[in-house]
Amino acid sequence: MDSTSQRLCPHCGMPVAHRAEDCLACGAHLKEQKKPSIRLPQGDWWLPVVLSVAVVVVWLWKPWQTRAPQAADLSTAVPTATPRPSATYPVAPTATPLQTAVPSPTPTQPPSQTVHTVKKGETLIAIAKLYGTTAAAIRKANNLKSTAPIHEGDKLTIPLLSANTPTPTPTLAPTPTPAVYVVAQGDTLSAIAKRYGTTVEALMQANGISEATGIHAGTHLVIPPPPVSTAVASVTYEVQPGDTLSGIATRYKVTVGQIKLANGLKSDVLKIGQKLKIPGVGASPAPAATATPTPEPTQTAVPVATPAYAAPALLAPADSAAFAGADTVILLNWASVGILGEEEWYVLRMRRAGLLAQQLPLVWTKATSWRLPADLYVGGLAQGQQFFWQVSIMRKTGEADDGTWTGEEISPRSGPRTFTWQ
Protein backbone atom coordinates (compact mmCIF):
# COMPACT_ATOMS: atom_id res chain seq x y z
CA MET A 1 0.00 0.00 0.00
CA ASP A 2 1.30 3.34 -0.84
CA SER A 3 2.35 5.36 2.24
CA THR A 4 0.58 8.47 1.04
CA SER A 5 -2.71 6.60 1.00
CA GLN A 6 -2.39 5.24 4.55
CA ARG A 7 -2.83 6.65 8.01
CA LEU A 8 -2.49 5.26 11.57
CA CYS A 9 -5.47 4.37 13.66
CA PRO A 10 -5.68 6.71 16.65
CA HIS A 11 -6.87 3.81 18.82
CA CYS A 12 -4.52 0.88 18.04
CA GLY A 13 -1.85 2.51 15.99
CA MET A 14 -2.24 0.12 13.14
CA PRO A 15 -2.05 1.44 9.61
CA VAL A 16 -5.37 1.89 7.92
CA ALA A 17 -6.34 3.10 4.50
CA HIS A 18 -6.54 6.80 4.12
CA ARG A 19 -10.14 6.77 3.13
CA ALA A 20 -11.15 3.94 5.47
CA GLU A 21 -13.94 4.69 7.86
CA ASP A 22 -13.28 1.71 10.25
CA CYS A 23 -10.00 0.25 11.52
CA LEU A 24 -9.70 -3.36 10.43
CA ALA A 25 -7.47 -4.21 13.37
CA CYS A 26 -9.50 -2.86 16.30
CA GLY A 27 -12.79 -2.05 14.60
CA ALA A 28 -12.83 1.62 15.73
CA HIS A 29 -14.91 4.04 13.76
CA LEU A 30 -12.40 6.46 12.26
CA LYS A 31 -14.68 9.04 10.69
CA GLU A 32 -16.02 10.45 13.98
CA GLN A 33 -12.50 10.86 15.35
CA LYS A 34 -11.52 13.19 12.57
CA LYS A 35 -11.37 16.84 13.85
CA PRO A 36 -10.72 19.99 11.81
CA SER A 37 -7.38 21.63 12.43
CA ILE A 38 -6.32 25.19 11.91
CA ARG A 39 -3.02 25.72 10.34
CA LEU A 40 -1.03 28.85 11.08
CA PRO A 41 0.16 30.71 8.07
CA GLN A 42 3.59 30.00 6.95
CA GLY A 43 6.18 32.53 5.80
CA ASP A 44 6.20 36.55 5.88
CA TRP A 45 2.97 37.26 3.98
CA TRP A 46 0.98 37.72 7.23
CA LEU A 47 2.67 41.09 8.07
CA PRO A 48 0.84 43.15 5.38
CA VAL A 49 -2.41 41.61 6.57
CA VAL A 50 -1.76 42.79 10.14
CA LEU A 51 -0.88 46.29 8.99
CA SER A 52 -4.03 46.53 6.88
CA VAL A 53 -6.14 45.51 9.86
CA ALA A 54 -4.41 48.15 12.02
CA VAL A 55 -5.08 50.88 9.46
CA VAL A 56 -8.76 49.94 9.35
CA VAL A 57 -8.99 50.01 13.14
CA VAL A 58 -7.31 53.47 13.34
CA TRP A 59 -9.56 54.80 10.60
CA LEU A 60 -12.70 53.60 12.39
CA TRP A 61 -11.46 54.95 15.76
CA LYS A 62 -10.44 58.36 14.34
CA PRO A 63 -8.44 59.62 17.36
CA TRP A 64 -7.77 62.98 15.65
CA GLN A 65 -11.40 64.08 15.96
CA THR A 66 -12.48 66.10 19.07
CA ARG A 67 -14.44 63.96 21.44
CA ALA A 68 -17.26 65.13 23.63
CA PRO A 69 -15.84 66.51 26.87
CA GLN A 70 -16.02 64.16 29.83
CA ALA A 71 -17.18 65.30 33.22
CA ALA A 72 -14.08 66.30 35.11
CA ASP A 73 -12.99 67.89 38.33
CA LEU A 74 -13.52 71.65 38.00
CA SER A 75 -10.46 72.33 40.09
CA THR A 76 -8.14 70.66 37.56
CA ALA A 77 -10.01 71.36 34.37
CA VAL A 78 -8.04 73.23 31.76
CA PRO A 79 -10.14 76.13 30.39
CA THR A 80 -10.92 75.91 26.73
CA ALA A 81 -9.39 78.79 24.75
CA THR A 82 -12.07 81.27 23.78
CA PRO A 83 -11.94 81.98 20.03
CA ARG A 84 -10.83 85.52 19.25
CA PRO A 85 -13.77 87.64 18.03
CA SER A 86 -13.55 89.05 14.56
CA ALA A 87 -12.53 92.68 14.34
CA THR A 88 -15.37 95.16 14.44
CA TYR A 89 -15.10 98.89 13.72
CA PRO A 90 -16.94 101.12 16.19
CA VAL A 91 -19.30 103.67 14.70
CA ALA A 92 -19.57 106.98 16.51
CA PRO A 93 -23.10 107.57 17.73
CA THR A 94 -25.01 110.37 16.11
CA ALA A 95 -24.95 113.45 18.31
CA THR A 96 -28.36 114.29 19.63
CA PRO A 97 -28.89 118.05 20.00
CA LEU A 98 -29.97 119.22 23.40
CA GLN A 99 -32.43 121.56 21.79
CA THR A 100 -34.26 121.45 18.52
CA ALA A 101 -32.42 123.67 16.08
CA VAL A 102 -34.53 126.52 14.84
CA PRO A 103 -33.53 127.53 11.30
CA SER A 104 -32.52 131.15 10.96
CA PRO A 105 -34.86 133.18 8.80
CA THR A 106 -33.48 133.85 5.36
CA PRO A 107 -32.80 137.58 5.00
CA THR A 108 -34.85 139.23 2.34
CA GLN A 109 -32.63 140.78 -0.29
CA PRO A 110 -33.48 144.32 -1.30
CA PRO A 111 -34.30 144.91 -4.95
CA SER A 112 -31.27 145.37 -7.17
CA GLN A 113 -32.73 148.35 -8.97
CA THR A 114 -35.72 150.64 -9.28
CA VAL A 115 -37.18 153.02 -11.88
CA HIS A 116 -37.28 156.77 -11.39
CA THR A 117 -39.25 159.24 -13.50
CA VAL A 118 -37.30 162.44 -14.01
CA LYS A 119 -39.04 165.51 -12.65
CA LYS A 120 -38.64 169.07 -13.81
CA GLY A 121 -35.29 170.57 -12.80
CA GLU A 122 -33.75 167.28 -11.54
CA THR A 123 -30.14 166.39 -12.31
CA LEU A 124 -28.31 163.07 -12.22
CA ILE A 125 -26.41 164.24 -9.14
CA ALA A 126 -29.64 165.01 -7.28
CA ILE A 127 -31.22 161.70 -8.32
CA ALA A 128 -28.09 159.78 -7.28
CA LYS A 129 -28.18 161.43 -3.84
CA LEU A 130 -31.85 160.53 -3.50
CA TYR A 131 -31.12 156.82 -3.98
CA GLY A 132 -27.69 156.66 -2.33
CA THR A 133 -25.90 155.80 -5.57
CA THR A 134 -23.72 157.69 -8.06
CA ALA A 135 -24.37 159.54 -11.28
CA ALA A 136 -21.81 157.31 -13.03
CA ALA A 137 -23.71 154.18 -11.95
CA ILE A 138 -26.99 155.63 -13.28
CA ARG A 139 -25.34 156.50 -16.61
CA LYS A 140 -23.94 152.98 -16.90
CA ALA A 141 -27.29 151.35 -16.06
CA ASN A 142 -29.03 153.44 -18.74
CA ASN A 143 -26.24 153.48 -21.37
CA LEU A 144 -25.98 157.27 -21.16
CA LYS A 145 -22.91 159.14 -22.32
CA SER A 146 -21.27 161.59 -19.94
CA THR A 147 -22.54 164.51 -22.01
CA ALA A 148 -26.06 163.16 -22.62
CA PRO A 149 -28.73 165.35 -20.95
CA ILE A 150 -31.82 164.05 -19.18
CA HIS A 151 -35.32 165.46 -19.63
CA GLU A 152 -38.50 165.68 -17.64
CA GLY A 153 -40.49 162.45 -17.93
CA ASP A 154 -37.49 160.23 -18.73
CA LYS A 155 -37.61 156.87 -16.95
CA LEU A 156 -34.23 155.96 -15.51
CA THR A 157 -33.15 152.60 -14.12
CA ILE A 158 -31.56 153.29 -10.73
CA PRO A 159 -29.09 150.61 -9.46
CA LEU A 160 -29.09 150.31 -5.69
CA LEU A 161 -25.57 149.90 -4.32
CA SER A 162 -26.66 147.94 -1.26
CA ALA A 163 -28.57 145.34 -3.29
CA ASN A 164 -25.61 143.16 -4.20
CA THR A 165 -24.38 142.61 -0.67
CA PRO A 166 -26.38 140.40 1.75
CA THR A 167 -26.99 142.40 4.88
CA PRO A 168 -26.99 140.59 8.22
CA THR A 169 -29.84 141.65 10.44
CA PRO A 170 -28.30 143.29 13.52
CA THR A 171 -29.42 142.33 17.00
CA LEU A 172 -30.98 145.39 18.55
CA ALA A 173 -30.31 145.58 22.26
CA PRO A 174 -31.97 147.98 24.70
CA THR A 175 -28.53 149.27 25.69
CA PRO A 176 -25.81 149.65 23.05
CA THR A 177 -22.86 147.33 23.56
CA PRO A 178 -19.56 149.20 23.87
CA ALA A 179 -17.23 148.72 20.92
CA VAL A 180 -13.53 147.83 21.15
CA TYR A 181 -10.98 149.87 19.20
CA VAL A 182 -7.35 148.88 18.59
CA VAL A 183 -5.12 151.95 18.81
CA ALA A 184 -3.13 152.62 15.64
CA GLN A 185 0.23 154.32 15.37
CA GLY A 186 -0.18 158.06 15.97
CA ASP A 187 -3.68 157.85 17.50
CA THR A 188 -4.58 160.16 20.37
CA LEU A 189 -7.44 159.96 22.84
CA SER A 190 -8.89 163.22 21.56
CA ALA A 191 -8.91 162.00 17.95
CA ILE A 192 -10.50 158.67 18.96
CA ALA A 193 -13.12 160.46 21.09
CA LYS A 194 -13.99 162.78 18.22
CA ARG A 195 -14.22 159.89 15.79
CA TYR A 196 -16.70 157.96 17.95
CA GLY A 197 -18.69 160.93 19.20
CA THR A 198 -17.63 160.62 22.83
CA THR A 199 -15.27 162.47 25.19
CA VAL A 200 -11.71 161.96 26.37
CA GLU A 201 -12.94 161.77 29.98
CA ALA A 202 -15.41 159.00 29.09
CA LEU A 203 -12.66 157.02 27.32
CA MET A 204 -10.31 157.37 30.28
CA GLN A 205 -13.00 156.33 32.76
CA ALA A 206 -14.14 153.34 30.68
CA ASN A 207 -10.58 152.03 30.31
CA GLY A 208 -9.07 153.03 33.68
CA ILE A 209 -6.53 155.39 32.10
CA SER A 210 -5.00 157.92 34.48
CA GLU A 211 -3.12 159.97 31.86
CA ALA A 212 -4.39 160.98 28.45
CA THR A 213 -1.00 160.17 26.91
CA GLY A 214 -0.87 156.68 28.36
CA ILE A 215 -1.88 154.80 25.19
CA HIS A 216 0.25 153.22 22.51
CA ALA A 217 -0.24 151.30 19.26
CA GLY A 218 -1.97 147.97 19.85
CA THR A 219 -3.87 149.07 22.98
CA HIS A 220 -7.48 147.81 23.05
CA LEU A 221 -9.85 150.58 24.10
CA VAL A 222 -13.47 150.09 25.11
CA ILE A 223 -15.53 152.79 23.40
CA PRO A 224 -18.42 153.77 25.70
CA PRO A 225 -21.81 154.65 24.21
CA PRO A 226 -21.97 158.30 23.15
CA PRO A 227 -23.79 160.67 25.49
CA VAL A 228 -27.44 161.16 24.55
CA SER A 229 -29.84 163.97 25.19
CA THR A 230 -31.76 163.80 28.46
CA ALA A 231 -34.87 165.30 26.85
CA VAL A 232 -35.16 162.78 24.01
CA ALA A 233 -33.04 159.60 24.35
CA SER A 234 -33.40 158.39 20.77
CA VAL A 235 -35.76 157.86 17.88
CA THR A 236 -36.30 154.85 15.66
CA TYR A 237 -35.78 155.18 11.93
CA GLU A 238 -36.77 152.61 9.29
CA VAL A 239 -34.26 152.29 6.44
CA GLN A 240 -35.68 153.25 3.04
CA PRO A 241 -34.42 152.36 -0.47
CA GLY A 242 -31.26 154.28 -1.23
CA ASP A 243 -30.48 155.17 2.40
CA THR A 244 -26.86 155.18 3.59
CA LEU A 245 -25.45 155.59 7.08
CA SER A 246 -23.78 158.86 6.17
CA GLY A 247 -27.00 160.20 4.65
CA ILE A 248 -29.05 159.27 7.74
CA ALA A 249 -26.39 160.77 10.02
CA THR A 250 -26.48 164.00 8.03
CA ARG A 251 -30.26 164.13 8.18
CA TYR A 252 -30.40 163.69 11.96
CA LYS A 253 -27.27 165.78 12.67
CA VAL A 254 -25.37 162.97 14.38
CA THR A 255 -22.22 161.07 13.40
CA VAL A 256 -21.95 157.70 11.68
CA GLY A 257 -20.02 156.41 14.71
CA GLN A 258 -22.90 157.29 17.05
CA ILE A 259 -25.42 155.38 14.92
CA LYS A 260 -23.15 152.33 14.64
CA LEU A 261 -22.48 152.25 18.39
CA ALA A 262 -26.16 152.68 19.26
CA ASN A 263 -27.14 149.75 17.02
CA GLY A 264 -24.12 147.46 17.37
CA LEU A 265 -23.30 147.68 13.65
CA LYS A 266 -20.03 146.24 12.36
CA SER A 267 -20.25 147.67 8.82
CA ASP A 268 -21.90 150.51 6.91
CA VAL A 269 -24.21 148.22 4.90
CA LEU A 270 -27.93 148.68 5.58
CA LYS A 271 -31.03 146.63 4.77
CA ILE A 272 -34.31 148.07 3.55
CA GLY A 273 -36.83 148.00 6.40
CA GLN A 274 -34.11 147.77 9.06
CA LYS A 275 -34.93 149.68 12.28
CA LEU A 276 -32.19 152.01 13.47
CA LYS A 277 -31.97 153.84 16.78
CA ILE A 278 -30.82 157.42 16.27
CA PRO A 279 -29.33 158.58 19.59
CA GLY A 280 -29.64 162.05 21.07
CA VAL A 281 -31.99 163.66 18.50
CA GLY A 282 -35.52 165.01 18.37
CA ALA A 283 -38.48 163.17 16.94
CA SER A 284 -38.24 164.78 13.51
CA PRO A 285 -35.25 164.66 11.17
CA ALA A 286 -33.77 167.73 9.62
CA PRO A 287 -35.63 168.53 6.40
CA ALA A 288 -33.89 167.17 3.35
CA ALA A 289 -32.46 169.79 1.06
CA THR A 290 -34.48 170.44 -2.08
CA ALA A 291 -32.54 169.61 -5.21
CA THR A 292 -31.66 172.75 -7.11
CA PRO A 293 -30.97 172.47 -10.84
CA THR A 294 -27.26 173.13 -11.06
CA PRO A 295 -24.64 171.89 -13.46
CA GLU A 296 -22.68 168.87 -12.30
CA PRO A 297 -19.80 169.98 -10.08
CA THR A 298 -16.29 169.82 -11.37
CA GLN A 299 -13.23 169.52 -9.18
CA THR A 300 -14.58 171.99 -6.59
CA ALA A 301 -16.51 170.14 -3.88
CA VAL A 302 -19.61 171.54 -2.20
CA PRO A 303 -19.39 171.02 1.57
CA VAL A 304 -22.29 169.38 3.40
CA ALA A 305 -23.88 171.37 6.21
CA THR A 306 -23.52 168.57 8.80
CA PRO A 307 -20.50 166.26 8.29
CA ALA A 308 -20.85 162.49 8.36
CA TYR A 309 -17.28 162.07 9.63
CA ALA A 310 -14.92 164.03 11.82
CA ALA A 311 -11.97 165.73 10.17
CA PRO A 312 -9.02 163.33 9.76
CA ALA A 313 -6.19 164.02 12.20
CA LEU A 314 -2.85 164.66 10.47
CA LEU A 315 0.00 162.60 11.93
CA ALA A 316 3.20 163.14 9.95
CA PRO A 317 5.31 164.94 9.00
CA ALA A 318 5.19 167.50 11.76
CA ASP A 319 4.08 171.00 10.86
CA SER A 320 6.87 173.12 9.29
CA ALA A 321 9.11 170.07 8.76
CA ALA A 322 12.08 170.54 6.40
CA PHE A 323 13.40 168.01 3.88
CA ALA A 324 16.46 168.16 1.62
CA GLY A 325 17.62 166.18 -1.38
CA ALA A 326 15.95 164.68 -4.42
CA ASP A 327 16.18 161.14 -2.96
CA THR A 328 14.37 162.02 0.27
CA VAL A 329 11.21 159.99 0.91
CA ILE A 330 8.34 162.19 2.13
CA LEU A 331 5.33 160.22 3.40
CA LEU A 332 2.18 162.12 4.40
CA ASN A 333 0.20 160.23 7.03
CA TRP A 334 -3.14 160.77 8.81
CA ALA A 335 -5.38 158.86 11.25
CA SER A 336 -8.22 156.61 10.10
CA VAL A 337 -11.79 157.74 10.79
CA GLY A 338 -13.24 154.23 10.48
CA ILE A 339 -14.48 152.04 7.64
CA LEU A 340 -15.39 154.11 4.59
CA GLY A 341 -18.29 153.34 2.27
CA GLU A 342 -17.81 152.08 -1.27
CA GLU A 343 -17.89 155.57 -2.80
CA GLU A 344 -16.23 157.36 0.15
CA TRP A 345 -12.56 158.34 -0.12
CA TYR A 346 -9.84 160.26 1.67
CA VAL A 347 -8.97 163.28 -0.50
CA LEU A 348 -5.59 164.97 -0.14
CA ARG A 349 -5.31 168.63 -1.19
CA MET A 350 -1.84 170.04 -1.78
CA ARG A 351 -0.71 173.51 -2.84
CA ARG A 352 2.80 174.65 -3.73
CA ALA A 353 3.72 178.25 -2.81
CA GLY A 354 6.47 180.63 -3.87
CA LEU A 355 7.87 181.02 -7.38
CA LEU A 356 6.33 177.68 -8.41
CA ALA A 357 2.93 178.39 -6.87
CA GLN A 358 0.50 175.73 -8.04
CA GLN A 359 -2.66 173.94 -6.86
CA LEU A 360 -1.84 170.25 -7.36
CA PRO A 361 -4.51 167.74 -8.49
CA LEU A 362 -6.60 166.11 -5.78
CA VAL A 363 -5.44 162.70 -4.56
CA TRP A 364 -8.27 160.16 -3.94
CA THR A 365 -7.22 157.18 -1.81
CA LYS A 366 -8.58 154.57 0.59
CA ALA A 367 -5.26 154.47 2.46
CA THR A 368 -4.22 156.73 5.31
CA SER A 369 -0.89 157.72 3.78
CA TRP A 370 0.53 159.04 0.50
CA ARG A 371 4.10 159.26 -0.74
CA LEU A 372 5.16 162.47 -2.44
CA PRO A 373 6.22 161.81 -6.07
CA ALA A 374 9.90 162.43 -6.77
CA ASP A 375 9.07 164.58 -9.82
CA LEU A 376 7.79 167.33 -7.51
CA TYR A 377 11.36 168.05 -6.44
CA VAL A 378 12.98 171.10 -8.05
CA GLY A 379 16.66 171.68 -7.38
CA GLY A 380 18.77 174.82 -7.60
CA LEU A 381 16.32 177.11 -5.79
CA ALA A 382 17.61 179.73 -3.38
CA GLN A 383 14.85 178.75 -0.96
CA GLY A 384 13.19 175.38 -0.63
CA GLN A 385 9.71 174.81 -2.01
CA GLN A 386 6.91 175.24 0.52
CA PHE A 387 3.95 172.87 0.42
CA PHE A 388 0.57 173.18 2.18
CA TRP A 389 -1.53 170.03 2.63
CA GLN A 390 -4.76 168.91 4.30
CA VAL A 391 -7.12 165.91 4.15
CA SER A 392 -10.91 165.47 4.14
CA ILE A 393 -13.39 162.74 3.21
CA MET A 394 -15.43 162.97 0.00
CA ARG A 395 -18.14 160.87 -1.58
CA LYS A 396 -17.55 160.33 -5.28
CA THR A 397 -20.55 161.37 -7.37
CA GLY A 398 -19.27 161.25 -10.94
CA GLU A 399 -16.53 162.10 -13.39
CA ALA A 400 -15.78 165.25 -15.34
CA ASP A 401 -15.25 165.29 -19.08
CA ASP A 402 -11.48 165.15 -18.60
CA GLY A 403 -11.80 161.96 -16.52
CA THR A 404 -11.17 163.53 -13.12
CA TRP A 405 -13.46 162.47 -10.29
CA THR A 406 -16.07 164.78 -8.82
CA GLY A 407 -17.80 164.55 -5.46
CA GLU A 408 -19.02 166.16 -2.29
CA GLU A 409 -17.27 166.59 1.03
CA ILE A 410 -18.76 164.61 3.92
CA SER A 411 -16.28 165.68 6.59
CA PRO A 412 -14.55 168.92 7.61
CA ARG A 413 -11.05 169.45 6.29
CA SER A 414 -8.15 168.87 8.60
CA GLY A 415 -6.11 171.86 9.68
CA PRO A 416 -3.41 172.61 7.07
CA ARG A 417 0.21 171.71 7.64
CA THR A 418 3.32 172.89 5.82
CA PHE A 419 6.72 171.51 4.97
CA THR A 420 9.66 172.60 2.85
CA TRP A 421 11.69 170.60 0.36
CA GLN A 422 15.03 171.86 -0.85
Structural category is alpha+beta
N to C succession of SSEs: EEHEHHEEHHEEHHEEEEEEEEEEEE
Q: What is the number of independent domains?
A: 4
Helical amount: 10-25%
Radius of gyration: 56 Å
CATH topology name of the largest domain: Immunoglobulin-like
What does this 3D model show about the protein?
The protein is α+β, with helices and mostly antiparallel strands. 15% of the residues lie in helices and 21% in strands. The protein has seven helices and 19 strands. Helix 4 packs across helix 5. 23% of the residues are buried.
Short précis:
By secondary structure, the protein is α+β, with helices and mostly antiparallel strands. It has helices at 46-61, 124-131, 135-141, 189-195, 200-207, 245-252, 256-263; strands spanning 6-8, 15-17, 113-117, 155-159, 179-182, 220-223, 234-238, 275-279, 302-303, 314-316, 321-323, 331-334, 344-353, 358-359, 363-365, 369-371, 385-399, 405-409, 417-421.
Main features:
single chain, 422 residues, alpha+beta, Membrane-bound Lytic Murein Transglycosylase D, Chain A, 4 domains, 8-stranded mixed β-sheet, 3-stranded antiparallel β-sheet
What's the helix and strand layout?
Layout: E1 6-8, E2 15-17, H1 46-61, E3 113-117, H2 124-131, H3 135-141, E4 155-159, E5 179-182, H4 189-195, H5 200-207, E6 220-223, E7 234-238, H6 245-252, H7 256-263, E8 275-279, E9 302-303, E10 314-316, E11 321-323, E12 331-334, E13 344-353, E14 358-359, E15 363-365, E16 369-371, E17 385-399, E18 405-409, E19 417-421
Parallel strand pairs: 9-18, 11-19
Antiparallel strand pairs: 1-2, 3-4, 5-6, 7-8, 10-12, 12-16, 13-14, 13-15, 13-17, 17-18, 17-19
Helix pairs in contact: 4-5
